[in-house]
Design goal:
There is one protein chain. The protein is mainly alpha-helical. The chain has one domain: Orthogonal Bundle (Hydantoin permease), CATH 1.10.4160.10. The protein has 21 helices and 2 strands. A hairpin with a 4-residue loop joins strand 1 and strand 2. The longest helix has about 35 residues. The radius of gyration is 22 Å and the shape is globular. The two termini are about 20 Å apart.
Length: about 500
């Protein structure tokens, strides 16, 4: 793939509102226009919204105090961000979406197994996001839920259709809009704004089950970025410093995550709130009449780029899945059609799955941790310890290349890790106060969920052991022979739009 364009495409690339023409194809070095300085703010905003605040509500709902919730959430966020940041460093080095890279571990067709897990994450996040917004806007403004969902999905679809550059701009605008208001709320809470003097905080304290659950949920929240973080770093120049990029992603995503979880925990404890929007409305109205409504509306606008981000990566995942079964040319038309199809599925999911938002959030985040941990272990072990960043990029786009159609090592490591996690699963319905599934080992540990740790260790070690039989010398000879031709041979898109 050369990345050459027709004259008409070149003209389109000069317009600031041009639709991105790349999707699952390789980004040539000549089109790497992104800047390292944008990564920190981008991922800061990735967690700087009401959804992350909602995660801070989980600890108090399980009997954990705000301070213990903050500690568990901070440790979990930082743990999860380590994996996220290392995945992000693969973007500029490979110039490919994250899940295309996974063909090296799972095979050209075998990667569909990992794709199903990640597609569940993207779709699930947006369903939970919009469910929380629907419930919040209904409680504050009395707005009908279904039309609200329709508007949210329409706007996010439009942003994701325009693609990478437009979403980076939207993230910047959203950050400028939300930062001063959330800072104001944080300061106001220090002076007990919105707290009913007649009310006393619920009797919250410490228990290991709640602490570990809060840790796992916070960790899974940022681990969930792992399958698509390099989707937004692949436009960086290939010589971008790996260390600086990892630090930019880590600091951006973890700082905002810790802040928002702490804010949520404090709102839940001091206001005894169960709904983020109602709590924000209450704090804002206590400061200035009408400010609460502004806070709610700004919170919704601020999360729209995040919904678009999930839709965009769901599109990349869907196209990768289709391409793994039947080779396609990922044209802008294919991008638009896949985004529209995903938006319709999301709308159907929101209508079908209704219930307590915090309960859905808790269950969903636990489930995605179970699905993603084996994949992230396999991918990172392969990239940093087995193949050490050396891949034949051209061979990602054919089932007859050195990575083949099926890579049983990666598939087996994922399956073994996931199966070993099952006895440690602890899935509960927070709102109903009942268990959904508790594995025998989780029961033996008193409800403490360490399934994620088991999955990381077992999948990572299994893959590393199986990968010892790889003929890496043969692979590297192929890569060396390709030289400057180590690119997909078929044109797979045009030039990217001007940033």
């Amino acid at each position: 793939m050369s990345g050459s364009t027709h004259p008409a495409q070149a003209v389109e690339a000069d317009t600031s509102l041009a639709i991105e023409s790349h999707s699952i194809d390789y980004i040539p070095e000549s089109e790497r226009h992104a800047r390292l300085s944008s990564q920190g703010p981008f991922w800061f905003l990735g967690n700087f919204h009401f959804f992350t605040i909602s995660i801070g509500f989980v600890g108090p709902s399980l009997g954990l105090s705000a301070l213990w919730t903050l500690l568990a959430g901070a440790l979990g966020i930082m743990f999860g961000t380590i994996f996220m940041a290392f995945h992000g460093s693969q973007g500029p080095e490979m110039g490919l979406p994250q899940m295309i890279q996974s063909r090296a571990q799972f095979g050209y067709r075998g990667v569909v197994i990992a794709l199903l897990a990640t597609l569940f994450v993207f779709v699930g996040f947006n369903v939970v996001n919009v469910t929380l917004i629907m419930d919040g806007l209904n409680s504050v403004f009395g707005l009908p839920p279904i039309p609200v969902a329709g508007v949210l999905f329409a706007v996010s679809a439009l942003l994701s259709i325009f693609g990478h550059d437009m979403m980076h701009k939207a993230f910047k605008w959203a950050l400028m809009l939300t930062l001063p208001l959330y800072a104001l709320v944080s300061v106001a809470l220090l002076f007990d704004a919105g707290q009913d003097e007649a009310a006393t905080p619920a009797g919250l304290g410490f228990n290991w089950v709640a602490f570990v659950t809060q840790f796992a949920i916070a960790a899974s929240y940022n681990i969930s970025y792992a399958p698509y973080v390099s989707d937004y770093s692949r436009y960086l120049p290939k010589d971008t410093s790996r260390t600086r990029l990892i630090m930019a992603i880590f600091l951006g995503a973890s700082l905002s995550g810790v802040w928002m979880i702490g804010l949520g925990a404090w709102l839940a404890q001091q206001l005894q709130a169960a709904d983020v929007f109602a709590a924000l409305d209450r704090v804002g109205s206590a400061l200035v009449p009408g400010l609460g409504h502004v806070l709610v509306l700004v919170s919704v606008v601020g999360v729209l780029p995040v919904i678009a981000l999930n839709t965009y990566s769901a599109m990349l995942t869907l196209l990768t899945g289709i391409d793994s079964v039947r080779r396609i040319t990922p044209t802008p038309r294919a991008r638009v059609l896949s985004i529209l199809a995903i938006s319709l599925v999301l709308m159907a999911g929101v209508v079908a799955i209704r219930g307590n938002g915090i309960s859905i959030l808790n269950t969903f985040l636990v489930l995605i941790l179970y699905f993603l941990v084996p994949w992230t272990a396999v991918n990172l072990v392969d990239y940093f310890f087995v193949r050490k960043g050396r891949y034949a990029i051209a061979h990602f786009f054919t089932p007859k290349g050195i990575y083949g159609a099926w890579q049983l090592r990666g598939i087996a490591a994922y399956a073994v890790g996931f199966v070993c996690m099952i006895p440690f699963f602890f899935i509960s319905d927070v709102a109903a106060g009942k268990e959904v599934y508790v594995g025998p080992m989780a029961r033996l540990l008193g409800g403490v969920d360490i399934a994620w740790l088991v999955g990381l260790l077992v999948s990572g070690l299994t893959y590393f052991s199986l990968a010892r039989s790889l003929d890496l010398d043969s692979e590297w000879r192929v890569i060396d022979a390709l030289g400057d031709c180590n690119l997909p041979s078929m044109p797979r898109g045009g030039a990217d739009p001007k940033q």
